[in-house]
């Protein structure tokens, strides 16, 4: 356990007096200066003072009456029924360690206690008994009160308590959280006052209390998963057959449609359905949903269309829900259907936040900020290397904003010739220049009226146009080339670049005043090497998206292949990853993606050597039989010949090494 409980408990003769002196100074001065006391204790001392808690009160004042206690006990019957027998089994160690173990509800009110007789008697004197409420408002700084505030493991040792009457006591508390909602269900608390104590016994009882709290959490997870009334009602109301699967890939429940199905009702484990088993693995490992995947379920090859959704709590994947629909469509039709999860895309955008692939902290943090940015109308600046997905973010932000039913207009400032960029952005009147349309033409800003304009690669905009853009951003009006009419604009501006604009300002390539006008809300999109944990999910996404064009299905990515992909530094980011997957699908034979299928230029240095060694070792083992060696490497015979040719290998390479070995 990552805390300093044992040291301070075993050595309170040194620890307690020093904290006691700091506590006295706090009471005398009314504030804390210096160091030596944990931050959460200081915060609680200050809050206890604000709440008007007397540091010299003899006992807590908040005690519920008998009728209310009875109601609390009934309300927490499930918790007490499960936890009480486990606590009672610890009676011997509680006596030996001279401690007590209590269960409190989500208000901090003690519901049940067990422990050494003298400890229980002394506890009663300060109202540590059934019905006593140990919140910060009632008792000042204490472990139960800290758990009520933070829902995290807490400990308060001796003079760390706000009330002097509690300075003989130590308490260690563990939260019991209800799954899915993270609501506080109850608190497990250990308390004792023995100064000279056995360290091993204390460590043991703390460990056991922690185990009990964890087992309670696990019990309620299983209970919630199988008995969630809203979930059950929803599942019985759909026509699809549904499996509920836990984190261990066990089927914990089925809806009526699944239980009454001639095939699905007999399925007890996913291990006998390799395709479905691998799909569940992917969902549980990456937290990404899978939509409309075809799966064969029995020997008769009856096929279903499956969609799998992860069940997550914070960052932990707890299980999944599988929806089965009988396949009545042709395979060709299925492979052509896009897996779009929402139909609210405007006709000017292709992406939304639903299309974001990745569960790494670096990526989820920036997605969270992007969602927040979509709720405001300020100018937004996106920075990031080429290929990180800046336009995907821009479109997603527009799609989630209140402008989503208006146009999203994008222009790459570096791709349009400088002589045409001004007319493209601001539009022109008839006859403004040679070749102009007779009726004139609106610019990108006018076309984006009411919506969003995305100025990609803004760092490549010529200096003379930067002046016009600055004026437009300040005045929110545009004047067409060759005209004098001011056209009011209601457009949100999102700008992006892979360049360092501060360096461009220093070089005289970008206006400093425009930089400050653009840098209102800034988001930096992380490079792929900074979110390398998302590579497997992206690989599977691109395989699923592009495999149809190569006539391939049910592709399995070998572990060595994924290892190479996750070890690569990806200078071209997601765009490069997509290209590598596409090239690999073109190279591969069969349905197993091996390292030999990766592009030659991708496999440099040690990776190439590793491939050559594996290939030669397989040929040595099979006495030069290409077919058998290919089977060992799980690649096709054609790929084997291609790699032998690529690495310019001959029979001497494996025959000579076989002789040496």
UniProtKB/TrEMBL annotation:
One of its GO terms (biological process) is regulation of DNA-templated transcription. CDD domains: AAA (cd00009). Residues 356-586 form the Sigma-54 factor interaction domain. SMART domains: AAA. PROSITE patterns: SIGMA54_INTERACT_1, SIGMA54_INTERACT_2, SIGMA54_INTERACT_3, SIGMA54_INTERACT_4. InterPro entries: AAA+_ATPase (IPR003593), AAA_lid_NorR (IPR058031), GAF-like_dom_sf (IPR029016), Homeodomain-like_sf (IPR009057), HTH_Fis (IPR002197), P-loop_NTPase (IPR027417), Sigma_54_int (IPR002078), Sigma_54_int_dom_ATP-bd_1 (IPR025662). The keyword ATP-binding applies. One of its GO terms (molecular function) is sequence-specific DNA binding. Keywords: ATP-binding, DNA-binding, Nucleotide-binding, Transcription, Transcription regulation. This is Sigma-54-dependent Fis family transcriptional regulator. It comes from Peribacillus butanolivorans.
